[in-house]
Amino acid sequence: MKRSAVFMMVSMLTVLASAAMAGDKGEGKVGKLFLFQKCDPGLNAGDEKYDPNTGCPLPGNGPWPIIPDNRRWGQMKYNLLGNQFRFSFQGERLLPQTDYALIYYPDAWPGKGLICLGSNTTNPEGNVQIHGEMNIPTGLPAPYDANFNPVAPSGAVGAKIWLVLAADVDCVGSGEVDQLGLQADPTHMLAWNPAAYLFEGNLIAYQYSAEVSEDLDSDNPDSEDADADTAAPQTNGNGNNGNGKDGHH
Q1: Distance CA 72, CA 74 (A)
Q2: Is 80 exceeded by the pLDDT of residue 227?
Q3: What is the mean pLDDT of residues 79-96?
Q4: pLDDT tens across 10-61, in order?
Q5: What sign does the dihedral 44-53-145-181 (CA atoms) show?
Q6: CB 3.0-4.6 Å disulfide test: which of 40, 65, 87, 127 passes with 78?
Q7: Is 107 exposed, middle or buried (0-12, 13-18, 19+ CB in 10 A)?
Q8: CB contact at 8 A, 162 and 105
Q9: Are 196 and 42 in contact (CB under 8 A)?
């Protein structure tokens, strides 16, 4: 009973955190998530706390800091409640002319049961847009996600959203679905090249409701308002969640 109460409280805080970042036209309905580059083998050379091959902090040295100059970053708008998970993502300064996939990543590695939200190819400047909607009856996070229940020491509950190389992820699962919503042969990560990825600035929550349909704020990405709304964030604050394939980005 006490554990259920704690879970409900932490889940509500996660939803409220997402709602607090909602856009002006979708206050309380549309969440806004920033994604950042957090690994670079060219930085922190010789620092024993970092993996020299990936540039990521080694296990036990989380949470992962955001690279300070915002070289690569992205923003995703999404509905907090509805019968379809609707999202609109824009990424900038990524690897040029490269196939990327936007995913929901459930802990632990290799992210069994991950959801590929969409994919696209960056332009010569390294910019990309990925928009769409998807039926996710489990909501986010899914029950099979290690972040579905509070885990010490952070007690964080919520879903991780990553932008990864499309070649590094298997988006096609197969087999029967169990009671938690996980397929027998689930989708999962195939490789780990985090220097090319974007990781969430904070965990998000999406509640599925068959009786509610919230419209996502669909600003034209080419309009002046949309450009202003997707300007690079002025701060690099990190959420209290643990990230990365070891649970500490």
Answers
A1: 7
A2: no
A3: 97
A4: 344 444 444 444 444 434 489 999 999 999 998 888 899 999 999 999 988 8
A5: positive
A6: 87
A7: buried
A8: yes
A9: no
Instruction: Confirm if 245 and 169 have CB atoms less than 8 A apart.
Output: no
pLDDT digits (tens, 9 = 90+) for 174-191: 999 998 889 999 999 999
Return the amino acid letter for 79: N
Residue type, 146: A
User: What pLDDT sits at residue 212?
Assistant: 67
Q: What span, in angstroms and rounded, lies between the C-alpha atoms of 76 and 129?
A: 10
3-state secondary structure the chain: CHHHHHHHHHHHHHHHHHHHCCCHHHCCCEEEEEEECCCCCCCCCCCCCECCCCCCECCCCCCCCCCCCCCCEEEEEEECEECCEEEEEEEECCCCCCEEEEEEECCCCCCCCCEEEEEEECCCCCCEEEEEEECCCCCECCCCCCCCCCCCCCCCCCEEEEEEEHHHEECCCEEEECCCCCEEECCEECCCCHHHCEEECCCECEEECCCCECCCCCCCCCCHHHHHHCCCCCCCCCCCCCCCCCCCC
Which amino acid is located at 18 in the chain? S
Q: Which amino acid would we find at residue 5?
A: A
List CB contacts of 157: < 8 A, sequence separation 6 or more: 7, 10, 11, 14, 141, 147, 148, 149, 150, 203, 205
Give the phi and the psi of residue 2 in degrees, each rounded to 5. Answer: -65, -40
Q: Which amino acid is at 193?
A: N
**Cα radius of gyration (the chain):** 17
* Tokens 């450009």 -> residue: 227
State how far the Cα of 35 lies from the Cα of 164, in Å rounded to an integer. 11
**pTM score above 0.70:** yes
